[in-house]
Amino acid sequence: MKCIINRRAEFSASHRYWLPELGDEENQKRFGPVGRFPGHGHNYVLYVAMEGDLDEYGMVLNLSDVKQVIKREVTKPLNFSYLNEVWPEFEQTLPTTENIARVIWQRLAPHLPIVRVQVFEHPELWAEYRGNNMEAFLSISTHFSAAHRLALPHLSYEENCEIYGKCARPHGHGHNYHLEVTIKGNLDPRTGMVADLVALQKAVEDYVVEPFDHTFLNKDIPYFAEVVPTAENIAVHIRDLLTVPIRELGAELHCIKLIESPNNSAEVYGPSPSVLKPELAAQEPVLA
Question: What is the pLDDT of residue 283?
């Protein structure tokens, strides 16, 4: 029987986004503050996922052995290092979060049956690599606060309460929404980026956070005048809003995860078919 196990590790390191073939002005324009000399640091968190058959002892691998491999191949050489110089891979391609995940995979693959490597630069920025050439995933998280009411306009208050419970109360209620946006694409062989991180953050801010924050979704966001703002429908709408801006950055939207509360979240995957192919819009069911 196949099973996937995960091992967590940590390392602290510094890095700098800087290309020597570019002048000061061009580097500053392209990378901003993260290109400043002599660099900056992070407490990185690493998750390594491995797959295999259960042995007679009920294990895929001996975790003590896994720990030693990760320490020898990754955390010992990277801990308290300047990443740009510690491994030759980071001299060719900058040590972005997504490229760090890719290179760690390459270092571990000869020793462990890995299926996924995740690197968290901090809680609001992480990357994932699955061994697919130069393709990687980059995730950012943010938040906004908004109110909503769940009710279908053609139903009575009593009927809406049967469907939505307390969420149908006439004056609505609010949430501190936590939003995770994951994109995928090929790493640039020189910059190590799937897409410009600052541009990605700005797109999410401009298209979602700024318009949604401190609103009553049903009344302030035109889309939700006709569509019930459930967590699922909000996630779908955010996907629709971000599909084209992310494609214009040279990447693809992979996943929108909207966490409404610690007990309730929704995920939608892939770019919006109704945006990329408007003729498919009628095929997407929504509550209206």
Answer: 43
Give the residue from 196, 203, 192, 95 showing the smallest Cα distance to 142.
203
Burial class (CB in 10 A: 0-12, 13-18, 19+), 38: exposed
Residue partners of 85: CB distance under 8 A and separation at least 6: 91
- The mean pLDDT values, 10 residues at a time, for the chain of 288 residues are 95 96 90 91 98 94 96 98 97 97 98 98 97 97 98 95 96 97 98 96 98 98 96 98 97 98 96 72 42
Mark 120-144 as b/e (b = at least 16 C-beta within 10 Å): bbeeebbbbbbeeebbbbbbbbbeb
- Please give the structure tokens belonging to residue 241: 């809003």
Instruction: Quote the pLDDT of residue 278.
Output: 58
Where do the H-state alpha helices sit in the chain?
24-31, 63-70, 76-78, 83-86, 89-92, 97-108, 157-164, 197-204, 210-212, 217-220, 231-248, 273-276
DSSP secondary structure of 25-42: HHHHHHHGGGG-TT-EEE
DSSP 206: I
Q: Which residues are catalytic?
A: 167, 214, 260
End-to-end Cα spacing for the chain = 44
pLDDT value at position 1? 83
